[in-house]
Specification:
Largest sheet: 6 strands, antiparallel
Strand order of the largest sheet: 1-2-3-9-8-5
Strand content: 35-45%
Shape: globular
Number of strands: 9
C-alpha cells in the first residue's frame, strides 16, 4: 500500500476516503523513546495543517498536525496505555487516528515515498 508524507513528518495511508494517520519512522528516530501521545476526540473536524495533539518522548514534546482536512472517525486508544507502539511500528501498530477525508484534492499536496526521501536527504 502507498503512504503519503508531510514536511512535519506525519504520514497516512489512503483507503477510499479514509486516511490512517501516523508519524514516520524518521520522526520516531528523531524523537527517541515515546512516553505519551495525546490524541483528539472522535468526531472532531480537522483542517489540513491544524494541530490535533502532541507526542512526548524522553527528549521533547512535539505537536502533531493533520495531513488532510477531515473528520476524526477513530483514534488508536491503545496508545494511551502503550505509547511505545510508536517506537516499535509507527505505521502498523502506532497509527494515531483515522480521518474521513473531506478534501481529497489535498492529497496531491503531500509527498510520495520518493519525494519524502528526497526531502529527508535535503535535511541531512
Amino acid at each position: 500500500s502507498e503512504y503519503y508524507y508531510t514536511a512535519s513528518h506525519e504520514c497516512f495511508e489512503l483507503n477510499g476516503n479514509l486516511a490512517t494517520v501516523s508519524i514516520t519512522p524518521y520522526a520516531v528516530d528523531q524523537l527517541g523513546e515515546i512516553t505519551f501521545v495525546q490524541l483528539p476526540e472522535v468526531g472532531r473536524e480537522l483542517s489540513k495543517g491544524e494541530s490535533f495533539g502532541e507526542i512526548e518522548s524522553v527528549k521533547t514534546v512535539s505537536e502533531l498536525y493533520a495531513p488532510l482536512t477531515g473528520k476524526v472517525v477513530e483514534v488508536n486508544t491503545e496508545l494511551d496505555a502503550q505509547p511505545e507502539k510508536d517506537n516499535e511500528a509507527p505505521q502498523a501498530q502506532g497509527w494515531m487516528l483515522k480521518l474521513e477525508v473531506s478534501a481529497p484534492d489535498e492529497v496531491s499536496q503531500c509527498m510520495d515515498a520518493a519525494g519524502y526521501q528526497a526531502y529527508l536527504d535535503g535535511l541531512a
